[in-house]
């Protein structure tokens, strides 16, 4: 059992979420080897060909023609996703020096490094669309691109690290498993590896919380307090409700998104209920109850006005997160200069050998 498969073991039909990742991986391999009939000729209708590829559930690759709006949508989403991974290192990074044991410290350090790696794959995927990582980073630093609302909340206790793994990585997995079947090949491929790693992250958070929830009364209270504070912000990660989602309809038609924000939020709630029961913790929603007719849980929606405030820069930690990122970027300038100088030197040396 892994991560969100907690309630759906791998040997269940379909293999749970990781089963879906494996299926996406197989589909990508099949798409790579399938004959496409050579693509459109010089006079072919490029737009019709693009639509055919999407309809046939094939992948659009960087070399393929694509509508400008499709390219822009992907750059926006992938860049926001990459920025989220990088900014998302801060709330947990805050606890590396205060982890309760050497083992916990080593695990957390590795997890935070994984998030940096995810940012790297995602910036690389965005670069295949004709933008540079430098440009995207600058857009973030100038406040012209977003990152996930969730990382603007503070981590007040060690239990918050557990909850980030359980709920935040859990929500990220629910959102990202369908992205493994995204129509844009480089993004879909990046997501496969990211999901496997996020699944491990979710598991480690769950294990931290399980330990606390079965520890002293104070530890259990600390775990419950963290769940109380993070539950609604985690639900808000899925974005505005479908009626207010500006991009969903088009992104779903292009098969960038496979499910709407509300569908994924519902899936997340349904998954968390049983996991909370096993933890012995309570989800802070008095109206959470099974709806026999819908075969899903009724729940209280997050405060979407709060989501909009956080997205627009008014969350509890927005300023702190951006200040930290700008400082880290400035302090890392010498590394970028040194790396560029080294690359230039190596390329000159290679040219000299070739001459
Ligand atoms: N936060 O029309 P929609 C992680 C914006 S990774 C901030 O519904 P869309 C790993 C949205 O951008 C977490 N902004 O938009 C980790 C748009 O604004 P724009 C990140 C949000 O794109 C774990 C506007 O609202 N994951 O956690 C949010 O169709 C632990 C209208 O919204 C991804 O980025 C929000 N929550 O759907 C790391 C996954 N929600 O651009 C460290 C990929 C909406 O027009 C530790 N992204 N907005 O100015 C997606 O799946 C989608 O972009 C959604 C939003 C679902 C986030």
From TrEMBL:
GO molecular function, one term: phenylacetyl-CoA 1,2-epoxidase activity
Matches recorded under InterPro entries: Aromatic_CoA_ox/epox (IPR052703), Ferritin-like (IPR012347), Ferritin-like_SF (IPR009078), PaaA (IPR011881), PaaA_PaaC (IPR007814)
GO cellular component terms listed in the entry, alphabetical order: cytosol
Native organism: Micromonospora haikouensis
NCBIfam families on file: PA_CoA_Oxy1
Protein name: Ring-1,2-phenylacetyl-CoA epoxidase subunit PaaA
Pfam families: PaaA_PaaC
Gene Ontology terms describing biological process: phenylacetate catabolic process
């Amino acid at each position: 059992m892994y991560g969100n498969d907690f309630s759906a073991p791998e040997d269940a039909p379909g293999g749970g979420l990781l089963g879906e990742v494996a299926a996406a991986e197989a589909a990508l391999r099949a798409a790579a080897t399938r004959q496409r009939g050579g693509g459109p000729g010089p006079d072919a209708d490029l737009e019709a060909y693009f639509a055919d590829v999407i309809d046939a559930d094939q992948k659009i690759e960087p070399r393929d023609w694509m509508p400008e709006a499709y390219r822009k949508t992907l750059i926006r989403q992938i860049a926001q996703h990459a920025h989220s991974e990088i900014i998302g290192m801060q709330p947990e990074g805050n606890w590396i020096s205060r982890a309760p044991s050497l083992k916990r410290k080593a695990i957390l350090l590795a997890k935070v490094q994984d998030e940096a790696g995810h940012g790297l794959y995602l910036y690389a995927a965005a670069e295949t669309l004709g933008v540079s990582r430098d440009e995207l980073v600058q857009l973030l630093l100038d406040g012209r691109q977003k990152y996930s609302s969730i990382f603007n909340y503070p981590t007040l206790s060690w239990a918050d690290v557990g909850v980030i793994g359980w709920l935040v990585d859990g929500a990220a997995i629910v959102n990202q498993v369908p992205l493994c079947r995204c129509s844009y090949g480089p993004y879909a491929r990046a997501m496969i590896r990211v999901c496997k790693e996020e699944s491990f992250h979710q598991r480690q958070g769950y294990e931290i919380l399980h330990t606390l929830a079965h520890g002293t009364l104070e530890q259990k209270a600390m775990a419950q307090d963290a769940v109380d504070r993070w539950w609604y912000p985690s639900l808000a990660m899925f974005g505005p409700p479908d009626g207010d989602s500006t991009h969903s309809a088009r992104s779903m038609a292009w098969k960038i998104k496979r499910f709407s924000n509300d569908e994924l939020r519902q899936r997340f709630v349904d998954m968390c209920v049983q996991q909370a029961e096993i933890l012995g913790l309570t989800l802070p929603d008095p109206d959470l109850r099974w709806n026999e007719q819908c075969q899903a849980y009724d729940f209280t929606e997050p405060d979407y006005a709060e989501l909009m405030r956080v997205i627009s820069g008014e969350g509890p930690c927005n300023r702190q997160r951006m200040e930290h990122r700008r400082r880290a970027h400035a302090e890392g300038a010498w590394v970028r200069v040194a790396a560029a100088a080294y690359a230039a030197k190596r390329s000159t040396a290679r040219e000299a050998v070739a001459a």
